[in-house]
Design goal:
Elements: H1 3-19, H2 28-36, E1 41-44, H3 51-61, E2 65-69, H4 73-85, E3 93-96, H5 102-113, E4 119-122, H6 124-128, H7 130-137, E5 141-146, H8 166-174, E6 179-183, H9 188-198, E7 204-207, E8 215-221, H10 225-239, E9 244-248, H11 252-264, E10 269-272, H12 278-289, E11 295-298, E12 311-316, H13 323-330, E13 340-346, H14 348-356, H15 363-381, H16 386-393, H17 408-411, E14 417-418, H18 420-432, H19 439-447, H20 452-456, H21 473-485, E15 489-492, E16 498-501, H22 503-510, E17 516-517, H23 542-559, H24 563-566, H25 569-578, H26 583-587, H27 594-614, H28 633-643, H29 648-654, H30 659-671, H31 679-685, H32 688-700, H33 706-713, H34 720-735
Parallel strand pairs: 1-6, 1-7, 2-4, 2-5, 3-4, 5-6, 8-13, 9-11, 9-12, 10-11, 12-13
Antiparallel strand pairs: 14-17, 15-16
Helix pairs in contact: 2-3, 7-8, 14-15, 23-25, 23-27, 30-34, 32-34, 33-34
Amino acid sequence: MTASATEHEVLLENLQKYFGFDAFKADQGSIIQSLLDGKDTFVIMPTGGGKSLCYQLPALMLPGTAIVISPLIALMKNQVDSIRGYSEEDEVAHFLNSSLTKAQMKKVKQDITDGRTKLLYVAPETLTKEENIEFFQNSDISFVAVDEAHCISEWGHDFRPEYRRIRVMLDAIARDVPIMALTATATPKVQQDILKNLDMSGENTFISSFNRDNLFYEIRPKVKKDQTLKQIIQIIKEEFRGESGIIYVQNRKTAEDIAEMLCVNDVKAAPYHAGLDPKTRANTQDAFLMEDIDVICATIAFGMGIDKPDVRFVMHYDMPKSIENYYQETGRAGRDGLTGKCVAFYNYADILRLEKFLRDKPVAEREMGAQLMQEVVAYAETASCRRRFLLHYFGEEFHEDDCHKMCDNCKNPKERMEVQQEIINVIQCILDLNENYLMKTVMDYLMGRETKEMKDFRFAEFDNFGIGDDRDENFWSSIFRHAMINNLIYKEIEQFGLLKVSEAGRNYVKNPYPIAITINHDYEEGEYDFDDEKGGTAVLDEPLMNMLKDLRKSIAKKHNLPPYVIFQDPSLEEMATQYPISMDDMSKIVGVSLGKAQKYAQPFIDTIKKYCEENEIERPMDITIKTVANRSKTKVNIITAIDRKIPLEDIAKGNDLSMQELMEELDGIVNSGTKIKLDYYLNKIVDEYVRETVIDYFKEAQTDSIDEAYRELKDDEITWEEIQLMRLKFLSDYAN
């Protein structure tokens, strides 16, 4: 029998002894043996792959105590409880962090000294304390495991500055003990960062496949809030009634609003975010694990290390800040091996909102954040296999035939087109610019845009300038993306995403071969209609929509108002989708208040009713969505405060909102048909000339777009913020 065979048998014996398992998953056995041999070991294994066992088993086998560095106190507690469940003695595992009393800390250290503790979970901050460093220097440390190692890298999805100091602290404690670094998600760039920062020389690296073949990936266009919430409730009630799921959002208020809306519609839900006190967060987490709550509406504060195997769906109401975030969060679905559904609602406006938060960051961080978000955009808009996109991002090759229709694009494929020459054009343009520019600049050159950069560097004089001016940006974005997926071009991450041509790309220009691709979804143009076997949202009835627009125009003329004041386009679109034929039906349409319905709705009801009869239309048996009374407590607070003539800055502060968030709330209040009196505030901060000019503009304008108004009025030295405020007054006075 060979030595390696003997080693494997010993490992299996210990696996059975300590955990009761008969076999290892994937590379677990080789990973554990690497550590037992004293080698630094780097483990990249997707969520649910069994990372924890890779350090738990060797810790139990080796003399001394293994230190496990973990980012979250809640995660430590779960891990300690888990390992104690396999042992007769609780002392086998401890955590050491700020949540312990002095007496508890003393007990932990005594158990380590006595050799009773095999696993000690610590936060990086714990290692910085001088008394702890001194204690560990005099302890028998078997090895150090760095869990969630992507936290080391600024390019990772959950960067934590204190993780960057781990190597320095370990040098002070025990330079010669082996290190194991573990992560569930890491791009090639993040992998390099981890190895470099931890100084893991001569390490053994184990990379498992990132493919989660039981997860279905889908992107849906995000329209108005009410319509999106309606879809969420429909999906839960029709497909996942009584089952566990997570809805991710970007801010606390949205988490609370969605949780409230779900509860009103008989879905057991609760919010989870950093603004809640620790006890409430712990209780919510426990309730979710114990199935007292079905759905968690959470910011990214929720989820790291949460081991609930039967999460059936993960939704993203807001798109995440990076592909790594997305992969990590969707990875919480289907850990039991059964199908999990991952639905993300996408609107490019959300990305622009995220980018605003980067404005005050240092240049390098801003560039990095923008690049990560553009990858999210590329994922959302791609019409090719989403699984292939994700795996390519993590450096893994994958053929879309192996997706087995487990993403929306493979399930409902778009027509493909041959793009051999177009890919050659893209490669040639990158080479023309000496592989020294970002995609935006190459795109400008390719499409012949005479930007300042093109003129300053005289690129407009090059032969290939404007070679792609016959196609739009969406088309060329698809070409760039497919060239990357086929490894013909790549982004040089070290240089903030400069486009480079690979050796394969240079060969492609010399010896091209056919490549057929699908063109990205263009959500802005509304080309993507969601349809599903289980109903979904109905399709917009274009002929009816045109009739309603004509009707709106004639009514607006009678009242001497712009058409959008009568009903805005989203309201008409919903009418042309849901076919409301009564005042009760009409009151459920987004943006139609009771007052507005009584004022303007009857001719629309009559038109729709007649249209349905003449065309024998069966109205959708639509799920009834209950709304939260007065929408939310915050809205009531805002309206009450305005009635009391409190300055808007104080209202924002009192409701824990930024001024922009308050503006969005006010916009929602006015668009729902509620009249608000802002004169007390406007008269103080907006000049009379500005007030009159903006009101006169909106009386004549064809749209209530603030951006459009600003373009028209900025030469009059009227600010965007003043227009935003006066638009609220105009809509309140004339539309409600």
